[in-house]
Amino acid sequence: MKRISRPASGIPTVRRTPAELDVALNALREGSGPIAIDTERAAMYRFDDRAYLIQLRREGAGTFIVDPTGHPAKLREWQDALLAETPWLLHAAHTDLPALLALGWQPSVLLDTQIAARLLGCHRLGLSLLLEEFLSISIPKDKGNADWSQRPLPNSMLAYAALDVEYLVPMHDMMIKELAELNRLDWYRQECEHDRLRATPLAAPQWTDMKGASFLRPGTRAAIVAEALFETRTKIARSADIPPERLLSSKTIMSLAPQRFSAAKRDLTAEFDRLVRGPGADRVNPHRHNITLLSLLDALSRAHNEPTTAITTQKTKNAIDKDGELFGSIRPDAKTWEEDYPQAWVALEILRESNQELSESLGISADAIMVARQMKFVAWEFTQRLNAPEFDPGDVDAVEELLGNLLQHAGLRPWQVELVLNDATPYLLDEVVDGATYEESS
């Protein structure tokens, strides 16, 4: 194993000025092949996950490190001048694309070494681990959580950043060769295109993104409190450019939401006392904590004085599976299916077994084919529509079309749909559809 701590051509200088950016752009335009791209962000130190450094490398041009914070308008020109017509090569692109799209950049073709590794059955998907496996080289990976917003950046951090793109192209070439030998190149293209199309620029945070917030009914006191505390926290954190979670954690907000005002006020005050003076106190802008506490207490008070609008409803017998909302439907919790919805339970078990068998036979992770929420959606909707009065469960072609449409609606790509259809359809026809046909005839 060869250990590498600095780029072969030396540590690139950071391009900041318009003239320096033009030099980098012209050099990259003269290169050939895809552009290897990576970003360094500072979400642990700043308000959001925007890029503070961008590394780009292309064969025949070399590596360039760009500071995107000084002249974002200049960088937007790169889209038409270079980036729109050149394939992008990243590792774990889904983590970098929101920051890059926020700059006005947009790939027309996306390549991703992490996706390739997953389809090759690699168990270790981190960049440094894959470089060890494919190229027998080791690069440092100890600065990923460093503060990349600091200026100036030391050479050790610039070397670390440059190495993240130094070997992407040769490793990708090896992966493509192996994928071709396994007849999985089309799978790879579909997965990359899927990630390219679903990527969105950095967006303003929403209170419903907090863990557990989806279980709060809109208009209830708890929902009003959670939203008010979240929006106040967001406003303060954005103004100070500090991480919202370090100001007040979402877990704390969710614990305060259902409490009476007096108890919530007491606990919020105690939490800030811990933040400022307690063990492991957070020292992010400590001089702002008193103002912050007063602002949050005011938001808490206003939320408790705001009238509720939720309509009280009777509790249903079964819990609701909130994953169903991802696909525009609500269904009973899958834990109740075996007893209360046996047909849906059988369909779910068949899909689970099929997924596991495909995973083992192909040598790839089961999650690369289907994930749990997709299986639950398909199993539930399949049995519901199978028993609809207008549907003929005896029409095998209609049953296969229904299953294929549901798999596609759940987000499976064509290669995944084909695999699951071929493997699971016979069992569903035998154990689920035939049962529905029998019940209909009797």
From TrEMBL:
Key words, A-Z: Hydrolase
GO MF term list: 3'-5' exonuclease activity; nucleic acid binding; nucleotide binding; ribonuclease D activity
EC annotation from Swiss-Prot or TrEMBL: 3.1.13.5
Root EC class: hydrolase
Is Hydrolase one of the keywords? yes
For this entry, the protein name equals Ribonuclease D
Question: Where is the chain membrane-spanning?
Answer: none
Looking up CDD domains in the UniProt record yields: RNaseD_exo
**Matching SUPFAM superfamilies:** HRDC-like, Ribonuclease H-like
The record's gene field reads rnd
Q: Where is the 3'-5' exonuclease domain?
A: 12-180
